[in-house]
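Final report, results section. Input specification for complex C-07:
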Amino acid sequence: MSALSISQSAPRLGPLRMLAAFLLAAAVLLWPLAFGQPKFLLHIAIMIAIYGALAMSMNLMLRIGQLSLAHGALFGIGAYASAILSRDYGWPVELSFVASGLIAALVALVTGPVFMRIKGVHFALLTFALGEVLVLCFVEFSDIFGGNNGFGQIPAATLGGLLPPTRYGSYLLTASFALAVYFGLGALYRRELGIITESIHQNEALVTASGFETLQFRVAVFALSAAIAGWSGSLYAHYQGYISPDSFGFWTAVNAIIMNVLGGAATLTGAVIGAVILIPLPELLRDQQQYQRLIYGLTLMALLLFMPRGLLGLARQVLSSLRGRS
Amino acid sequence: MQLAIQISIIALMSAFVYALVALGFTLVFGILRIVNFAHGEFYMLGAYAVYVFYGQLGWPYLPAIAASALVVGLFGILTERILFRRFAGDEMGGMIMSLALAITLQAAVSLIFSVDEHSVARPVEGAIELGRIFLAKDQLLVVAVTLLALAAFYALIEKTRLGITIRAVAQDREVALLQGVRSWRIMALTFGLACMLAALAGALMAPIYTIHPYMGELVVVKAFIIVVLGGLGSLPGAVAAALILSFTEAIAATFYNATVATMLSFLIVIAVLLVRPAGLMGRTS
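Structure output:
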């Protein structure tokens, strides 16, 4: 009940916050102009935007207390769908992009009614298996997906010539998408979505007893999360021009989770901060791949051990949802 | 007939090896409530330890595998103490810590031994001939040692005081604490034991296949499938599921291909999780 009463006090965007949001968006989109559009930094920024959006889609799942290890594969479904539609079927990139998220959402809608009944660690294991099956499909059905050789010559997104055909153009597109996800989900969290997730979180039995279909709601959240993951995948495919199954495995989902954990709290900003910390690491140390992995692993361990306060918020929330629902 | 027996021996060998890894995996989950994704890395460390002791230092094979299991087991106790203890019961935190450990160990081994594959010389050569059936001696050795280890482990868990204590902590830690069990010590011991079993499996498999820093990833996936099929925390379930998995896999891989075989086993996992989340033989909580 206490959670439901939040609805009156849920903060709306005041004019000051709107101005702050506008300035933030402008700064994010325009900074490269002030720095002479540095290619390498732009590449990292594009990766942050794409994986940040994926991390935010994972944040949505964590909100309802479901740890999904299939998001790497959903990211992959978006990437392959968009690539196949635009290259092999000649669809415009913009249309393929729209379709890619819808196809990923469709997968969630089909599996969701059964999958979302499973909770806790078993849901994580279930989505792990689902992700592995999907990635094995990308490998096995090579006449559609290109198999382990990958899938190349994916056309770039130009928005009908609106975007400059430079790396800054790709950045504008991916960063706008990430900003849209950030503000869109933020708005949803402040309204019904946030209130309902919070109430389900506190007392699902009560919410169900009040006549609210929690299962349907959670399937819808799963679908929305899958759509965002799929769209991120589509942007990834059109930016890279080449995709292969190993970009969409278990570790992609894990990295999205780790970004949320590093961010420290179960907030969208936390997920973005996680992406900003984690993405540059492999890009900066690209030549010494093993040192990079070692540093990555050690840093993560140190953060988990010595920064428990930031992590505990999320861990507690997930844990209580892993345990508490019956 | 001959093909059937050959397939059976290979399936039996991998079943026992997977069972050793899966038992530790499920034991750690039972005691610490941690899904240890780094469990395969202890298997990998066991293989590299035998590569050093037997391949490089030239120790005899059996002492070398015993030493490998022991060293990795002690290392496991150390990681439990430093990394995992504070995440006991925190499924999310523990899982992420195990992922961090997996990355770190893979990278460390790659830096020390390089990412290239190494091979370990076979400790026994040749085959036993029974009529028209040939049985490779090195595979039989693996079957014999793993069977012995499984029996010893079963005796330890079922018959000894330590085993009873471990099961008590797995069932209900608080009650075990009330009975005067020092559960932290049991957790460390269990974790070490689990790592030891995985390392033994790795050490035994090192001469059969080549070794490389990422060899644990595949094995932990198998262990994962077995544990889900058998039920998280169930020991007899793990052994039964290991047998089912290896025979299905050996047959599917012989007549179709390995990708299809893996896909099939994951589909079975999904079906089991949906219909009977506690696993085929697990207890429903």
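The longest strand of chain B covers residues 127-130. Chain B touches chain A at residues 35, 83, 86-87, 89-93, 95-97, 99-108, 110-111, 115, 221, 224-225, 228, 232, 259-260, 262-263, 266-267, 269-270, 273-274, 277 (CB under 8 Å). This concludes the modelling results for the funded period.
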